[in-house]
Automatic annotation (TrEMBL):
One Pfam short name: GGDEF
Name the UniProt record assigns to this protein: Diguanylate cyclase (GGDEF)-like protein
NCBIfam families registered for this protein in UniProt: GGDEF (TIGR00254)
Residues covered by the EAL domain: 419-671
PANTHER family documented for this protein: CYCLIC DI-GMP PHOSPHODIESTERASE PDED-RELATED, CYCLIC DI-GMP PHOSPHODIESTERASE PDEF
């Protein structure tokens, strides 16, 4: 195998065989499939879910017990839309109907020929494709699963071992290439002898072999190398084993292998009165990715997200509890030193960064963003209330600028917001004048000059104090109050901007328009009337529409944008880079600006691959004649790199957060 993904047509099989793991792995590899083998039944479901396989083969020869071998793997394969093959002795064929009833999908009898194994594997693969909506979706899911894979192979040209990007990262190696002797020297002497013996066995017989070793600095964690030949040279698929953390399937989410919501609540109940911090993470716009690529790809992606969260949590906070709470929400539970505010915030940043690295789906790159709410326990908290407070922090983190992390500490009692009460309060907030406007300055790259502002909403609640846009818009969506809120924000921003002094007469104003807005009949005429009544020049107004608001009906969106531009307004796509970004549809839309999402902009100071993706988006926009605005710029390094790639404008905490109209006037006069 070469590259970062398995070749087309080559699939993976997870094998559970207490007695003949290596023999079955060799037979499966001879059929042209990757094999991931295991002997222990106790942690098989988690190892299956952490592999990229969608087919499991269970060796039930010699009277293997269905309850011990088959039952634990059935929920895991069902949840992932997989196939489950049982291998039984010919004399035990009478048991096959019962095993199929218990959850197996295919069977193979001993003795079997290579041709019979091939046929069974391909039959199982056809079932996986049918369950997943076709071969294309199955291949995309396979590529996503393989995208974060751990493996290595010999490079003929360099005579060195070439590690996958993720394996090099997990081992904290500065380079993806190492000499074989250099890699072996990282092992203890007994482990080195076992590795050499396995490599020699592979060389003599060509049959698969395996060796395992401890990981320096990670007590209890081990790596297993499943050896094979790829294009005539040694290679290995590498698998993590987590000592002491692999429990039976009780309390597990069978789609990701993480703890379930109930298991997480039980864990929190067990820590009542003890210092505990929880991170509640949510993946943005996952439903749109699901709609574009299908459920099987979405399920595969959730598995990859779970693996990334596990790895980062294990690196930063050993012993952390990781669970899938519901849908695309994940919980990380912290105790001891890891529960301290700064450590928890650092971990949240690391996890959000890991989730933000693109996932490959064949001919597409899927890029996701995450938000995180952090809650620190109080002595009187029970599990449900602590989780609710983390949910409040998460709501505040959604749709905010910057890193998207909000904290509710034990001291910040004022931020314990009653979400039900908020729905009632929102309907009074407009009349009370509690919904205010902040203007975030936009700067020209390479200059200190403010060229425009984006209008942002703030809720100055009478009881809870200032609440961010996350809570405001989440409450509006839940209470079906989005349209009145949006209209108020637009009208108030235009009113204030129209009153700016002459010194601000060159500034552009960017207004956000929601998907609910543009879906309303008569939106165009009503919006233009609103602008004209305020007295703000159309020529200085930019309408920002989120990518998600356009993607439902591209042709209708194109017609609307054309009409807006025909009336003298400029048009921008906001938050480009969240969800799944389709470059193909972008060329069909009449635009003036493309605003790249804060997470994407911040990635430019990440890895070389991150920079390539950001560079591609900027260069694509420039080739279409669009100006590019970067959101969420926080460091001089990010700004320098964005400037080098041709970004035109930027906004973010590096220069200014959102300010009031009076503060904006003072800021412009100062620069």
């Amino acid at each position: 195998m070469s590259g970062t993904a398995a070749p087309d047509g080559q699939r993976s099989v997870f094998i559970l065989s207490p007695r003949d793991r290596d023999g079955l792995c060799h037979a499966v590899q001879a059929a042209g499939w990757h094999a991931i083998g295991a002997r222990r039944a106790s942690d098989a479901p988690q190892r299956y879910l952490r592999s990229e396989a969608q087919i499991a083969l269970i060796d039930m020869r010699d009277g293997g017990e269905a309850e011990r071998l088959l039952a634990p793997l059935v929920p895991a394969t069902v949840a992932g839309g997989g196939a489950l093959i049982i291998l039984v002795d010919a004399i035990d064929t009478a048991s096959i109907p019962a095993l199929l009833t218990a959850g197996a999908t295919h069977f193979l009898t001993e003795p079997f020929t290579q041709a019979a194994l091939n046929a069974t594997l391909w039959s199982a693969e056809r079932l996986v494709e049918r369950l997943g909506g076709g071969a294309m979706h199955s291949r995309r899911a396979q590529r996503i699963r393989r995208g974060d894979a751990l493996y290595w192979e010999m490079d003929r040209n360099r005579g060195e071992v070439r590690l996958s990007e993720n394996l090099a990262r997990q081992l904290d190696l500065p380079d993806r290439y190492m000499t074989a002797s250099g890699l072996l020297r990282r092992l203890s002497r007994p482990e080195r002898r076992a590795a050499l013996a396995a490599l020699q066995s592979l060389g003599r017989s060509g049959r698969s072999a395996a060796f395992a070793h401890d990981v320096p600095g990670r007590d209890g964690d081990r790596l297993v190398h499943h050896l094979r030949y790829a294009d005539g040279v040694p290679a290995a698929d590498v698998e993590w084993l987590h000592g002491g953390n692999e429990q039976e399937g009780v309390g597990r989410d069978y789609l990701t292998g993480l703890y379930s919501r109930q298991a997480a609540l039980d864990w929190l109940d067990g820590r009542a009165g003890l210092a505990t911090t929880i991170l509640l993470l949510s993946i943005s716009q996952f439903d749109r990715m699901n709609a574009a690529y299908g459920q099987v790809v979405g399920d595969a992606l959730l598995g990859r997200i779970a693996r990334r969260i596990e790895r980062v949590a294990g690196d930063v906070a050993e012993g952390a509890t990781v669970a899938r709470i519901a849908g695309t929400e994940f919980l990380v539970g912290l105790t001891g030193e890891a529960a301290e505010r700064d450590r928890a915030t650092f971990l949240a940043r690391q996890i959000i960064g890991a989730i933000g690295r693109p996932f490959s789906a064949g001919d597409h790159l899927i890029r996701l963003t995450a938000r995180c709410g952090i809650a620190q326990s109080r002595p009187e908290d029970d599990a449900t209330y602590l989780l609710k407070r983390a949910g409040t922090a998460l709501a505040d983190a959604r749709r905010t600028d910057g890193e998207g992390i909000r904290i509710l500490s034990a001291e910040k009692r004022s931020r314990q917001v009653d979400s039900d009460q908020l729905e009632t309060d929102l309907r009074l907030a407009l009349d009370r004048g509690e919904i205010g406007i902040a203007f975030q300055p936009q700067y020209s790259v390479g200059q200190e000059r403010i060229i425009g502002v984006e209008a942002l909403a703030r809720w100055n609640h009478s009881q809870y104090g200032p609440l961010g846009a996350g809570i405001l818009f989440t409450t509006a969506e839940r209470s079906d109050y989005m349209l009145p809120l949006s209209a108020h924000i637009q009208a108030e921003a235009l009113r204030q901007a129209a009153a700016w002094p002459r010194a601000l007469s060159d500034l552009r104003l960017s207004l956000n328009v929601t998907a609910a807005d543009i879906a309303q009949p008569g939106f165009l005429s009503e919006f233009l009337a609103l602008v004209d009544r305020a007295g703000f020049p159309r020529s200085r107004l930019t309408v920002e529409i989120t990518e998600s608001g356009l993607i439902e009906d591209v042709s209708a969106a194109a017609a609307l944008l054309t009409a807006l531009r025909g009336e003298g307004l400029a048009v921008a796509i906001d938050d480009f880079g969240t969800g799944y970004s389709s470059l193909a549809y972008l060329k069909n839309l009449p635009l003036d600006y493309l605003k790249i999402d804060s997470g994407l902009a911040q990635d430019i100071s990440g890895t070389a691959r991150d920079r390539i993706i950001v560079r591609g988006v900027i260069h694509m926009a420039k080739s279409l004649g669009l100006k590019v605005i970067a959101e969420g710029v926080e460091t001089e390094q990010q700004l320098d790199l964005l400037a080098h790639e041709g970004c035109d404008y930027y906004q973010g905490f590096l220069r200014s957060a959102g300010v009031s109209s009076d503060e904006l006037v003072a800021l412009v006069l100062k620069t």
